[in-house]
Amino acid sequence: MALLKIKFTQQRRVHLAQGLWLLSWMAVMWGGVIFCLGVYLKTELLRRAEVMDNTEIHVVPNILMMVGLASIGTNWVASRVCQDSLDPTRFPRWKVPLLAWFAQLLYLCPLSLYCQVGLRNGIRFYKDTDVPGRCFQKETIDRLQMEFRCCGNNNFKDWFEVQWVSNRYLDFTSKDVKDRIRSNVDNRYLLDGVPFSCCNPTSPRPCLRYHLTDNNAHFNYDYQSEELNLYSRGCRQALTDYYMELMNSTGPGVLSVILIQSLTMGLRYLQTAVETAMVLEDPEGDSEGYLLEKGVKETIEDLKINALTMLKFGQVDPNAAEGSSEVADAEKDEKDAPPSPAS
Amino acid sequence: MPFMPVKFNLQKRVKLAQGLWMIYWLSVIVGILLFSLGIFFKIELRKRSEMMDNNESHLVPNLLILVGLLACGVNAFGGKVCHDSLDPIKFAKWKPMLKPFLLLCCGFNALLLLTALLCFLMQFAVYLTLAEGLKNSIKFYKDTDTPGRCFMKRTLDLTQIEFRCCGNNNFRDWFEVQWISNRYLDMSNDLVKDRVLSNVEGKYLMDSVPFSCCNPGSPRPCIQHHLTNNSAHYDYDHRIEELNIWTRGCREALFSYFSSMMTSIGVLIIATIILESVDMAGLKYLTTALETMEDPENPECESDGWLLEKGVKETFGDLLAKLKTLGKTNQVVEGGDSVSIL
């Protein structure tokens, strides 16, 4: 009992082939779109390379690009199959590639890859505008904080823990500076202030960025309840949100999976219908197409037997080589007599 | 003597019709481009209207939108005429409309020329509105509690960050206005009282700028307060310091942005005028070639095409004579009346 049998006339076969050809070209274009999306994502990540915490995140655009290219290739093959399907002389050469095609039914959809991003050492090197290799760190962080509307790694207090003012601009004869430097073990000039790029333009009040924890330093200021003065979001959260959004827009990858599945089913029907027609010696007549020649259970049984016999070949005793080769030949003949379920 | 005559056989006529059809569809695309540029310009003006005191003139973008739509329509019609021109039955439908259509194209070209001129001339108007608008924006920076102006601070901050500019002419414009609201000033503090009393209008003036003037490219953390006081900061000389805050004024920055946009739109319109003229010339050649076929039943026959039936001077003479007779018909009627009365 074949699985999901459908009767096909020549007309229907032609229509099926044409429809599948169109569908496979659409899938090729879709593969191109996914590839371009991967390229775009990669360039975005490279642009922010200085402030990315790790390189694992590059897996996602790499996978997208591979999936895109693979999709283009396989669907181009599928379109060629459709074109050749109605010509009995050219169809048989596609048998083997089709088998391989059916094997890659499962695409890995890289939609939910959790990734850690953060300001890699960015805040620590903010002040090093005179160190070669790091002199643009300040500008990068400032522009990042202004563009993504964030401050610090997790929040603005991260700035209180690093010295972000270079020693070149500190007056070491001043008492205030000397006090601050002596107040911690590493002799760093720490202050409860943030750079100007943390300022929130929507605040009704001109930005306060020094003496943030001191309520008396500013008129009508309460450190605990002030919300709009600085950006409250950390840059790690801001960057993660941004890239998650970018990668979720590849959610249409789900659409591509549906497309591939329907294409696969259609191709299977076409292949079986054309082959049945050729077997019946009447390429123009009616034939039946099916998904599986026998039912699901029987097909699985057949596959198991095939797999076991293949394993048994490996286990053949070298002493009984001659005898076993005869047995192997007999088994091979047995196997060939009924039509194999996979073709 | 026709002006610029060209001999046409069937082959040439077909080629002309096909080429002209493609150029017409190219012109339709250019028309769509003009339309979208008009919309883009309008949106940009709206976005910055707070900087322009809300009285900027939308004449140029509106004209662009109109011209874009007209270009699409006129050129699509021309393309259809070309498409039908080699089929005598279909072409006979369009024949009577061709003369008015060519006159319409002439008028459209004149409108395009006017739009291009406006694109170049209205830049002065934009400059003046920007100067006035920015002055007021800086004045109203602190009024975040006044309805109608509460977003001025945010708009001006974002503009200064985006266009990398500070103040109207330069950063010293901020020294002349009070940009901190009285709500955040401790009026009981002596320093505050001194500053307020130091000028006639009782404004709290200081030599500081808002944070949005800061230049991220500066190697030093931004200095925004006590800018003219060298001793307030270590190793600081305000006459030499260049990278600390943006030195360019926002009027200049915004004006160069809008001016480059308007100049490129003007150049595109001039290119469109040239394209439209080519369209008109091609259509004139095609229609005259089709009309002068000696044997309409035989498509293989040769024909002549020209731009003007008589020479340029004679055509102008004819036009003037027509205009004069138009005027004279009125006069003749009056004379006739007077004669009849007599």
From TrEMBL, chain A:
<dbReference type="InterPro" id="IPR018498">
    <property type="entry name" value="Peripherin/rom-1_CS"/>
</dbReference>
<keyword id="KW-0472">Membrane</keyword>
<dbReference type="Pfam" id="PF00335">
    <property type="entry name" value="Tetraspanin"/>
</dbReference>
<feature type="transmembrane region" description="Helical">
    <location>
        <begin position="20"/>
        <end position="41"/>
    </location>
</feature>
<feature type="region of interest" description="Disordered">
    <location>
        <begin position="320"/>
        <end position="343"/>
    </location>
</feature>
<dbReference type="InterPro" id="IPR018499">
    <property type="entry name" value="Tetraspanin/Peripherin"/>
</dbReference>
<protein>
    <submittedName>
        <fullName>Retinal outer segment membrane protein 1b</fullName>
    </submittedName>
</protein>
<keyword id="KW-0812">Transmembrane</keyword>
<feature type="transmembrane region" description="Helical">
    <location>
        <begin position="62"/>
        <end position="78"/>
    </location>
</feature>
<dbReference type="InterPro" id="IPR042026">
    <property type="entry name" value="Peripherin_LEL"/>
</dbReference>
<dbReference type="InterPro" id="IPR000830">
    <property type="entry name" value="Peripherin/rom-1"/>
</dbReference>
<dbReference type="InterPro" id="IPR008952">
    <property type="entry name" value="Tetraspanin_EC2_sf"/>
</dbReference>
<comment type="similarity">
    <text>Belongs to the PRPH2/ROM1 family.</text>
</comment>
<dbReference type="GO" id="GO:0007601">
    <property type="term" value="P:visual perception"/>
</dbReference>
<dbReference type="GO" id="GO:0016020">
    <property type="term" value="C:membrane"/>
</dbReference>
<feature type="transmembrane region" description="Helical">
    <location>
        <begin position="98"/>
        <end position="117"/>
    </location>
</feature>
<keyword id="KW-1133">Transmembrane helix</keyword>
Automatic annotation (TrEMBL), chain B:
<keyword id="KW-0472">Membrane</keyword>
<keyword id="KW-1133">Transmembrane helix</keyword>
<keyword id="KW-1015">Disulfide bond</keyword>
<keyword id="KW-0130">Cell adhesion</keyword>
<feature type="transmembrane region" description="Helical">
    <location>
        <begin position="254"/>
        <end position="275"/>
    </location>
</feature>
<keyword id="KW-0325">Glycoprotein</keyword>
<keyword id="KW-0812">Transmembrane</keyword>
<dbReference type="InterPro" id="IPR042026">
    <property type="entry name" value="Peripherin_LEL"/>
</dbReference>
<dbReference type="InterPro" id="IPR008952">
    <property type="entry name" value="Tetraspanin_EC2_sf"/>
</dbReference>
<dbReference type="InterPro" id="IPR018498">
    <property type="entry name" value="Peripherin/rom-1_CS"/>
</dbReference>
<comment type="similarity">
    <text>Belongs to the PRPH2/ROM1 family.</text>
</comment>
<dbReference type="Pfam" id="PF00335">
    <property type="entry name" value="Tetraspanin"/>
</dbReference>
<dbReference type="GO" id="GO:0007601">
    <property type="term" value="P:visual perception"/>
</dbReference>
<feature type="transmembrane region" description="Helical">
    <location>
        <begin position="101"/>
        <end position="130"/>
    </location>
</feature>
<protein>
    <recommendedName>
        <fullName>Peripherin-2</fullName>
    </recommendedName>
</protein>
<dbReference type="InterPro" id="IPR018499">
    <property type="entry name" value="Tetraspanin/Peripherin"/>
</dbReference>
<dbReference type="GO" id="GO:0005886">
    <property type="term" value="C:plasma membrane"/>
</dbReference>
<dbReference type="InterPro" id="IPR000830">
    <property type="entry name" value="Peripherin/rom-1"/>
</dbReference>
<feature type="transmembrane region" description="Helical">
    <location>
        <begin position="62"/>
        <end position="81"/>
    </location>
</feature>
<dbReference type="GO" id="GO:0007155">
    <property type="term" value="P:cell adhesion"/>
</dbReference>
<feature type="transmembrane region" description="Helical">
    <location>
        <begin position="20"/>
        <end position="41"/>
    </location>
</feature>
